[in-house]
Amino acid sequence: MTDDTLRLMAVHAHPDDESSKGAATAARYAAEGVEVLVVTCTGGERGDVLNPHYGPPPAGGIVGMREVRRAEMAAAAAALGVRQHWLGFVDSGLPEGDPLPPLPAGCFALTPLVEAAAPLVALVREFRPHVMTTYDPSGGYPHPDHVMCHIVSMEAWSAAGEPGRYQGTGAPWQPLKLYYDHGFSLARMRAVHDAILAAGGASPFSDWIDSRESREVPERPVTTRVRCDDYFDRRDAALRAHATQIDPAGWFFAVPRELERQVWPWEEFELAASRVPTTTPEDDLFAGIRGLQA
Q: How far apart are CA 245 and CA 72, in angstroms?
C-alpha cells in the first residue's frame, strides 16, 4: 500500500447492477472514508423498460436509452456516495428464443478479450484498488454481458500487476483481494421469506424459492458478510434512481425494512482470490489489508 486510503472497485455489467448487488456495502465503505469506484462495462442501451409505471420508452432507440440510463446512473452513484466510470462498451442485449438469435455485432460480449480488458486494466492501474468485486463465472445469471464482465474482471485482476502485460496502460498495480457478489442467495431469500410469513405477511419470494429448489441450483460458498443495514436507505434510493428498470412498487421494496434489518442486515460475498493472509468467515472486505504499510 502506498498510502493510508483504502480503495474498492466494484465492476458491473450494466447501470442498475451496482444498486442491486453490494450497494449498501459500497455506501457503507464510502461513508467510512474508503474510496469506492463503480465501473460500468456497458451503457445498458439494449435494456427494456422494466418499470410498468415509467411510461413510454425513451425516444431515439438505443441512443435515447443510453442517455437516460447515464442520467439514472449518475443519480444512483450520488445516492450511494461513490464515484462511477463507464468502460464504454455497448450492451449485448439478452437473447431470447429457440434457437437463440446471434448477439449484435460490436457488442461487449463479442469484443475480443484483450480489447475488452485493456480499459479495465488501465483503470485498475490508475485507481489502484486494494479490493475488487465482480460476478462469479456464471455471471450470477446467464446474461452474456454478466459472463463477459466476469471474464474481463479476472483478466484485469491477473494482468494489472504484471509489467509485461498491457503495456502503455499505466504503471502496474496489484489488487490484493477479489470477491464475487452474492446478491440473492437462497439462504437470504428463505430467511426473509420465513420472517415475512411468521409476521403474518405475504412473501413475494415463494415462487422464486420453489423454482430455485426444484431446479437444484447449486449455492456458491459465502465467505464474507458485511453488515450494512444502516445503508439500506441509500441502496433503495439508488435502486429508485434507475427508473426505467426498477418498479418502486415491485419486489425489491416488498420487504419491510425493519424486518430486513432484524433478519438479514448483511450483504454477502465470496472471496475468490487473495494475495494477503486472511481467515474466513470474514465481516470486512478489507480483512488482512487494514494496517498494511508501504
A: 10
pLDDT tens digits, one per residue of 27-65: 999 999 999 999 999 999 999 999 999 999 999 999 999
Q: In what helix (H) or strand (E) does residue 78 lie, and over which residues does it extend?
A: helix 61-80
Cell numbers placing 8? 474498492
CB 51 within 8 A of CB 117: no
Q: Classify burial at 122, counting beta carbons within 10 Å of its beta carbon; exposed 0-12, middle 13-18, buried 19 or more.
A: middle
Contact 229, 260 (CB under 8 A): yes
Is residue 292 classed as helix, strand or coil in its secondary structure?
coil
Q: Model pTM?
A: 0.95
Give the integer Cα–Cα distance in Å for 77 and 255: 23
The domain locations on the chain are 7-184+221-274, 186-219
Report the pLDDT averaged over residues 58-77.
Answer: 97
Residue-level pLDDT at 291: 82
Answer for the pair 255, 192: CB distance below 8 angstroms, yes or no: yes
Give the confidence band of 82 by pLDDT, cuts at 50, 70, 90. Answer: very high
The residue ranges of DSSP E strands in the chain, in sequence order, are 7-12, 35-42, 83-89, 131-134, 177-182, 224-227, 266-274
Amino acid making up residue 145: D
Could you tell me the CA-to-CA distances from 105 to 13, 110, 113, 142 in Å, in that order?
18, 7, 15, 19
Domain covering 7-184+221-274 assigned CATH 3.40.50.10320 in the classification: yes
Q: How many CA atoms lie within 13 A of 34 on its CB side?
A: 26
Q: Which residues contact 3 (CB under 8 A, 6 or more apart)?
A: 294
Using the 8-state DSSP alphabet, how is residue 172 labeled? -
